[in-house]
Known about the structure:
Largest sheet of chain B: 8 strands, mixed
Radius of gyration of chain A: 21 Å
Oligomer: heterodimer
Amino acid sequence: MPLLEIRNLAVEFATASGRLQAVDGVDVSVDAGEVLCIVGESGSGKSVSVLAAMGLITWPGRVSAEAMGFAGMDLLSLSPRQRRRLVGRDMAMVFQEPTSSLNPCYPVGWQIAEALRTHHAVPKARLRDRVVELLGQVGIAAPATRLGAFPHQLSGGMNQRVMIAMAISCNPRLLIADEPTTALDVTVQQQILDLLLDLQRRRGMGLVLITHDMGVVAETAHRVQVMYAGQMVEEQPTGALFAAPRHPYTAALLDALPERAVGRARLPTIPGVVPGIADRPQGCLFNPRCRYADDLCRAVPPALAGAPDRRVRCHHPLAAP
Amino acid sequence: MSVLMQARGLSRHYMVGGGLLARKALVRAVDGVSFVLREAETLAIVGESGSGKSTLARMAALMEPPSGGEVLIDGHPTATIGEAARRRLRLNVQMVFQNPYGSLNPRKTVGAILEEPLALNRRGDKAARAHAARAMMDRVGLRQDQYGRYPHMFSGGQRQRIAIARALMLNPRIVVADEPVSALDVSIQAQVLNLMMDLQDEFRLAFMFISHDLGVVRHIAHEVLVLYCGRPAEYGPRESLFQAPRHPYTRLLLAATPSVDPRHRQRRVPVKGEPPSPLHPPPGCAFAARCPHATALCTAERPAWREAGTHMVACHHADSL
């Protein structure tokens, strides 16, 4: 049984101009010890999906799903109190901007200890030792001397290490990282990714990594889900996705990477822009930008189809090799 | 190709601090950088945050006077001439900024934004300026009926088209672009890169293209200059710099950049440490503390900027690596 399993997730926001469907028909399943990447452009609903899984969507947002289970528990029927006991302990999250996610008014040691105190994870007397131990585990040199440091005194990479220390403080079984390296330089990015993957392997955690960077996906994921305009459009094991994408959007996205271009030739582009949350087209959401679209695509929204782990939301999926 | 701009030993130093608690300190934001910019060619400036990329760009655009060294445009010195002459030379260089949400005045229409450079320089009458603006909108792929619209009505990619159009209104020969596609999604990034390359061919523009994304740089650049901590590390033609980098930092940067090419994973090397603060640069090579090949010489003596094959490189051991 998967560690986290969500079926047919939908998130909508009630606004003055009507109900906006941010996410629709997303399935997420992660096993223990697995690295799942969710990839998509801005506005594709990747962050909203995992915030919903963490129970962090509040009014006016509304989350619904056919099923939402974590480690044998039904998340939909838990009371808010029971849910809070889970979040931060068994399922934890690392956010995009470390420097703005941390509280600037408190030292980082105190902020890491807060999670431990909230969940009564260690006896009070052991709190300080545990925080030092955690800082050491995330690769901060001379951890005991950093307890009193404030976020502004640390670099972006160090702050992200602090965020990770906080997230793993209660030994979570599932770690969700939402663009954990987007704000960081490439050499620091590699350090943080290596750290996350190392922790994931050693602790057998499930890791959900959200990113817009196809290079990061290729180098970290076991399995990939591609999001477009609030929907999951394709799911494949990593190697297969890059070798033979099935959805025209995935294929076009990979073609648009400068890295895959030859010399200084013009890049293949995807015409138009991602539809906004309020102007989603009829039929397949990708049809106005798709070179293979026909009348069926313009009228009928396609359903996710295919074997588990190799699903695609397209009337005319590209041939598997 | 004829040389449009030449920089010799450019430096820019700032005094910082001097407040209640801090002593005054000298930051060498850019320290001894030389380059040549040729007609219809792209020079990419690569480096991590704090490496001095943006400061270098501002000096190249004559927005900021260098503390040392000089910038020559068409062989004319820019520092020793009077303000009026400098203003005339400055018309040759225009700038495109990173964030198209912040660089366009939200209270002006596209038409007004594009006509402003002409009006400020007293070019043509009102009708001629409007005509030029519409022609330029055509050229960068905006519709003429969008002339009266405001920036907030455009997507990020379209806004960057507006910013590029504005930079070209005065027919510059050099365009300094500071991370012009970093804020854009991959599919939109490809559109803007194609546009920039088309415009370069059509107007024989020289681009100074600042980026931290090596995939983009490899696609668009003719020559690449790598900066580290304000100092030049390596400078050379694109292909040979990517194929056979001479400086250990260039190698590290290439290895740390995530790639969708599965062969890349084997080339990954662990990264240690973070860049030094430009406030306290080390006495020797700025990269010595993170360099796997560093010797006593590297920590003691700053390497000279010298030729190594077709490259310029600042490394004591470039020949033996």
